[in-house]
Write a structure and sequence with these properties.
The complex is a heterodimer. Chain A is of the alpha/beta class. Helices cover 36% and strands 11% of the residues of chain A. Chain B is globular, with a radius of gyration of 24 Å. Classes of the chains: A alpha/beta, B alpha+beta.
Chain lengths: 194, 564
C-alpha cells in the first residue's frame, strides 16, 4: 500500500443516530486520521483530474469514445473537460503534433497551473509514429515532459482509461514529474539549509 | 457526353495546332500538354465553351521530374458536371524559371491548390492574390516534395515566428472611430475539432474579414507514400479522413487496381461497398453530432455515438481495429469477414435508423437549432462549384453531383438509392442532406447484404497479392512469388492515373504516377474538404462570431485529410 494515510481501517458508525455520533473503531476507540497536507491534496487531485484534450488527429476521435457513455471516463472522476489551460491540470495530447503545432502545445502547457500532468496518447505523440517526416515532431517529449505514454495507433479507449488510472496511481505514489521535481527541490533546499 | 474527338475539336476551334496545346496519346483520361503562355486563355475557353463546360476545377498539383529538361510539371484536373467528361492539363516549367500564370481568376478553387504547389515545389503562380506557404510552417526552408529534399529534414518553428495575416497587425478604426477587434480562433479551440485556425476582424460582433490558416496537421502523407511500397501506403490512407477510414483505402486501392488492370473478386467488392457505406454513416454521425454539440445540443451526440460504437464493433470484428482499419489490400481485402458478419450488419440496419429517428425528433424541427442554422453560412450553387466543392456540402446547394451516380464504381449503378439534394445551401440544408444520406447508405447496405456470396476475397494474380500461406510452404513457385512481393513489393506499370470515389466529404481523388518501381513515384490526394474549407473565410464575412462555430462543423473539415 503506497498510501495508508488515505485508506483508514473501516470505521463503524457508533451512537444512536443522534447528533454527536462519531466514527468508532471495533474496539470502541475514536477514529482519527493522520496525514500530510500534501498527501491529502494528492488524494483530491488524483480523483478529480480535469483534462484538457489537445486533440489533433485520429486519436481525438478515440478520445471522444473515451468520453462518451460506453467507456465513460466519469467513472474515474476525470470527465470535466476544459479547453482552457487555466482550468485544467491534465494535458492529454491526442494525435500527431507537427512542427507548426509545437509552439502552440508548449504555450498551452506553460499556461497550465501547477501541479500539472501530461498523458501522451498514441504513438504519434509518443514517438512520431510512422511519420518519420519533415514536419512531424518525433515525440512530444522533445518539447514538454510526459508522465504517461499510451501506445497504439490509435489506442483503444480502454488503453487510455488504463493510462488515466496509471496516472492516478503515480499521483498517489508521488511519482509524477511534478512531484519528483518538487521533492528534489525540497531535498536540495534541506541540504543547503542543513 | 461528347467524345474525345469532339472535345478536341471544340478546343481546336480556339487553339489550332501550333498554338501551344498538344493532345497526349493514351492515358486514363484526355490529357493536354499546355504551354504556360497559352494557359490563361485555354482555361477561360475550357470553362466558358458550352460544349466543354469545365466548370469544376478538381485539383492542381506539381510533380517533380529531376531528370527532365523542364523539371516541374503542374497538373490540373477538370470535370464538367453537365457533360460528365474530364480532362487533365499538364504545364511543364523549368527549374530556373518556375513560373506559371495563376488560374485563380477563372476558377477560385485554384486558390489553395496553387499555394500548396508553391509550398511543396516552389512553383510560383503569377497573379495569385496571396501566394505563400500553406501547409509547412513559415520557418521551413526548401520545398518538401522535391525529389532532392530529404524526408527527415526538419526545421524548428519558434514562438513568435508563427504566421500572422498582414491585415491583422494593423489597427483599424471604423467610421465611429472605434478600433475594430482582431480575434484568433484556434488552432486549439473546442469548436475546431482538430487543428484549424481562423483569424477574424470584428466590427462589434460582425465579422468583416477572415483568413484561415491550415497545415497544423501536415504530416507529410505524400512524401511518406514515396518512400513506401504500394501496399504499405494503405495504413497512411486510413489516417487521411480518420472518421471514415475505410473509404480512403477503397479509393486508393481502386486507383492502383485501375493502373494494374486487376479487379477485386466479387465478394471483396461487396464487402468493400458495405463497409464504405457504413463508414459514411459513421462519418455523418460524427459530423452531425459535432455540429449539434457546437450549437449547444449535446444529447443527440450522445445518442448517435452509441450507434458509432456499435459500428466500431463490426469493423473491429472484421480486421481487429476500430478506427484506422487497414482492411483493404490492393486486389481485395486482407482477410475474410467473421462468420457473424451478416447478422451483426443486419442488427445495425435495425438499430441505426432508430437512433437517427431519435435525433430527428429532437432536432429537425427544433426552433433553436433552426434559428441557429437556417440562412447561416449559405452559399450559392454557382459559387460552390467555383470553389471546387463536392459531396454533401455541394448537394446542399442543389447540385446533384455524386460520383456514385455520375461515374459508378464497385457496381453502384446496380443499386437502388437516391442522391439527396437540398437547395438553401446553408448549415441547415447540409444537416438535412447528411441525415438523408445516412438513410440512403443503409438502404444500399441492405441490398448489398443480399448479394454477399461466398468466394475468394483477394485476387489470385500473384504479381499483386500474396499466395495462400499453405502454398508458400509446399510449392516452389508460390514461395518465389511470396519472396518477390515481400522483398520488392508489387510493380505498377509506368503511367499515371486519377482515381476518384465519393468519400464522406465529396470527391476523393488520387492522382498516382508510377515509374514502374516498387514505390509510388508521386501520389497526390485530392482531399474534398481542402476545396470546401478554402471558401470558409469568404462565407464568414458578414456573420456573427457564434456562427463561425455552426458553419465550421457543418462543413465537416477533417484535419487529417485537409493537411495530409
Amino acid at each position: 500500500m503506497g498510501n495508508p494515510e488515505v485508506r483508514p481501517p473501516l470505521p463503524v458508525v457508533g451512537g444512536t443516530g443522534t447528533a454527536g455520533a462519531v466514527a468508532k473503531q471495533p474496539d470502541g476507540s475514536q477514529v482519527f486520521l493522520t496525514t500530510k497536507l500534501e498527501k491529502l491534496l494528492d488524494a483530491a487531485r488524483k480523483n478529480s483530474l480535469w483534462p484538457l484534450p489537445f486533440g489533433t488527429a485520429c486519436c481525438a476521435i478515440e478520445f471522444m469514445s473515451f468520453m462518451m457513455s460506453h467507456y465513460d471516463i466519469s467513472r474515474f472522476g476525470a470527465e470535466v473537460v476544459r479547453f482552457s489551460p487555466r482550468q485544467s491540470d491534465l494535458l492529454i495530447v491526442a494525435g500527431t503534433v507537427t512542427d507548426k503545432m509545437a509552439p502552440v502545445m508548449v504555450r498551452i502547457y506553460e499556461q497550465m497551473a501547477e501541479p500539472k500532468y501530461v498523458i501522451s496518447m498514441g504513438v504519434c505523440a509518443c514517438t512520431g509514429g510512422f511519420y518519420r517526416a519533415y514536419h512531424v515532431v518525433q515525440g512530444i517529449d522533445e518539447f514538454i515532459p510526459v508522465d504517461v505514454y499510451v501506445p497504439g495507433c490509435p489506442p483503444t479507449p480502454e488503453a487510455l482509461l488504463q493510462g488515466v488510472v496509471k496516472l492516478q496511481e503515480m499521483i498517489s505514489n508521488g511519482e509524477t514529474r511534478y512531484q519528483r521535481a518538487l521533492a528534489a527541490k525540497r531535498a536540495s533546499q534541506a541540504q543547503a539549509g542543513g | 457526353m461528347a467524345n474525345r474527338e469532339e472535345r478536341l475539336a471544340a478546343i481546336r476551334r480556339a487553339f489550332p495546332e501550333g498554338s501551344g496545346v498538344v493532345e497526349l496519346a493514351g492515358g486514363d483520361m484526355q490529357t493536354l500538354r499546355v504551354d504556360r503562355q497559352a494557359l490563361p486563355a485555354l482555361a477561360r475557353h475550357l470553362k466558358d465553351d458550352p460544349a466543354l463546360d469545365f466548370k469544376l476545377l478538381l485539383d492542381v498539383c506539381g510533380v517533380d521530374y529531376p531528370g527532365r529538361e523542364e523539371r516541374f510539371e503542374v497538373v490540373y484536373h477538370l470535370t464538367s458536371l453537365e457533360h460528365g467528361h474530364r480532362v487533365r492539363l499538364k504545364v511543364p516549367v523549368r527549374e530556373e524559371d518556375p513560373v506559371v500564370p495563376s488560374v485563380y481568376g477563372v476558377w477560385r478553387a485554384a486558390d489553395w491548390f496553387e499555394r500548396e504547389a508553391f509550398d511543396m515545389f516552389g512553383i510560383r503562380f503569377e497573379g495569385h492574390p496571396n501566394l505563400k506557404r500553406i501547409l509547412c510552417h513559415p520557418a521551413f526552408q526548401g520545398h518538401a516534395l522535391r525529389k532532392d529534399y530529404d524526408p527527415g529534414q526538419r526545421w524548428l518553428l519558434r514562438e513568435g515566428e508563427q504566421e500572422e495575416p498582414a491585415w491583422a497587425k494593423e489597427a483599424q478604426e471604423d467610421e465611429d472611430h472605434f478600433e475594430t477587434q482582431v480575434l484568433n480562433l484556434g488552432p486549439s479551440h473546442p469548436a475546431t475539432h482538430g487543428t484549424l485556425r481562423t483569424v477574424v476582424r470584428l466590427n462589434g460582433e460582425v465579422i468583416t474579414k477572415a483568413e484561415t490558416e491550415i497545415g497544423y496537421l501536415h504530416r507529410c502523407f505524400e512524401k511518406m507514400a514515396e518512400t513506401h511500397t504500394w501496399n504499405q501506403v494503405i495504413p497512411y490512407t486510413d489516417r487521411l479522413n480518420y472518421c471514415s477510414a475505410m473509404m480512403n483505402g477503397v479509393g486508393y486501392a481502386l486507383a492502383v487496381e485501375k493502373m494494374l488492370g486487376v479487379e477485386a473478386p466479387p465478394r471483396a467488392q461487396v464487402i468493400r461497398l458495405i463497409l464504405s457505406e457504413l463508414s459514411r454513416v459513421m462519418d455523418h454521425i460524427v459530423d452531425v453530432g459535432a455540429n449539434l454539440n457546437d450549437v449547444g445540443a449535446m444529447t443527440p451526440f450522445l445518442y448517435m455515438y452509441q450507434g458509432r460504437e456499435e459500428l466500431y464493433s463490426v469493423l473491429e470484428a472484421c480486421c481487429g481495429s476500430r478506427l484506422t482499419m487497414s482492411y483493404v489490400r490492393i486486389g481485395g481485402l486482407s482477410n475474410d469477414t467473421p462468420p457473424d458478419f451478416e447478422d451483426s450488419v443486419r442488427y445495425l440496419l435495425k438499430r441505426i435508423p432508430k437512433l437517427i429517428g431519435d435525433m430527428e425528433t429532437l432536432i429537425t424541427e427544433n426552433r433553436i437549432f433552426r434559428g441557429r442554422t437556417e440562412g447561416v453560412g449559405a452559399i450559392s450553387a454557382e459559387s460552390a462549384v467555383d470553389w471546387g466543392w463536392t459531396g454533401p456540402c455541394l448537394r446542399a446547394t442543389g447540385v446533384a453531383y455524386d460520383v456514385r451516380k455520375a461515374h459508378p464504381y464497385l457496381g453502384y449503378e446496380t443499386y437502388d438509392f437516391k442522391v439527396p439534394v437540398a437547395h438553401a445551401g446553408d448549415t441547415y440544408a447540409r444537416y438535412l442532406v447528411r441525415v438523408e444520406e445516412m438513410k440512403q447508405s443503409l438502404r444500399i447496405v441492405e441490398q448489398a447484404l443480399e448479394r454477399l456470396q461466398p468466394g475468394p476475397i483477394i485476387t489470385d494474380n500473384h504479381n499483386v497479392a500474396l499466395p495462400p500461406k499453405e502454398d508458400v510452404y509446399t510449392e516452389m513457385e508460390s514461395l518465389i512469388w511470396h519472396f518477390k512481393l515481400i522483398m520488392e513489393g508489387m510493380k505498377v506499370p509506368v503511367g499515371e492515373s486519377y482515381g476518384y470515389t465519393e468519400a464522406a466529404n465529396g470527391e476523393l481523388g488520387y492522382y498516382i504516377v508510377s515509374d514502374g518501381g516498387g514505390h509510388p513515384y508521386r501520389i497526390k490526394v485530392r482531399p474534398p474538404c481542402f476545396a470546401i474549407f478554402q471558401a470558409f473565410p469568404h462565407i464568414l464575412e458578414g456573420h456573427m462570431v457564434a456562427d463561425t462555430v455552426a458553419i465550421m462543423s457543418s462543413l465537416n473539415i477533417i484535419a487529417g485529410e485537409l493537411d495530409r
